[in-house]
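Check these lines:
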Amino acid sequence: MEKESFNRILIVDDEKHFRSMLKDQLQGEGFLVDEASSGDEALSMVALKDYTIILLDIRMEEMDGLEALKTLRRITPNTDIIMVTAFADIPSAVESIKYGACDFLEKPIQVDLLLDKMKSLIRSREEDRRLQEIQIDFPTLVMHKLRIPLAAVKSAVSLLNKGLDNIVSEKQRELLNHIDHTLMKINATINDLIDLAQLESGNVQLDKLPVNLDELVPAVCSRLEADAKAKNINFELSIDKNVPTIEIDSEKIEKVLINILDNAIKYSSTGGKISISTTAIHKEQDGALRQFVEVSVSDNGVGIPGNMLLHIFDKYKPETPNKEKTTGLGLALCKLIVEVHGGYILAESEANKGTTIRFAVPVDTDFKNY
């Protein structure tokens, strides 16, 4: 069997035009793509080659997609399979969860959505391999493995919500929406735990590129503006346009900003305000004066009691009478991300008067991690 499976995709569909169109688009994105016109042909091909992802149509003549899926799961258990379904076949797509489908897409295919799903699956594979290489603890590996089935369940809930307009009652739809929201929270928690484990292992890889925080910070704020407006909270930005460009892993620093802003919105009263600023500062470190770019987020919300402020960046926090006002794993993750960049993060707060979180990353790249 060939072992050239990295990013090799198999499209299984009995519509030649659909296969050809999709193949051209995926090859344009750098994927290696094969085609199969039937379930039987797909089974023959996976006996000869390894595939990263199989796109499998549910409704085909001779062997349908569900029957092919059952066999494919036995002979190629490590391949991720995305079901492709017409609107009328949504119940079959949902049923395919039982047989190991990773996700679903409805025809006509939205290529951008397909690429997002495929890249997510490939990224999950790479993280799985990296976690095993650094011999991360077993619970973290288990959490990592949970992400794909959670994504499949979330897709199923979305399909049910979309496809049963005349069957689902309003109460049932509310329940489906609640399930969807809960799945999002579970997935976010799992991602945070995995990121924490990787950062704590010391084996995290930063994808550093030159970034202007005076552009990144407003962009992140705009993504959370709807959440703020829902509570009639105003963002007040004070952005220094002269801050120097810095080399950071922008995806991870975005996560820091999102966590801090999300907490600020969550714990601010309706009608409050959140002030966000960026500025260049100089700070002594290791006996030398170094330049940093500092980001500050201040709210006028409920604040944090002094005894809790000491533990705000801890992964495990003391029990409190008001559990809904704990910050969870988010700020512990923020601290590790900032420190692996060679920076620092601080919190100031007063009960019932608000909280300020400040973090800074160094301008120069010649530094030692904390």
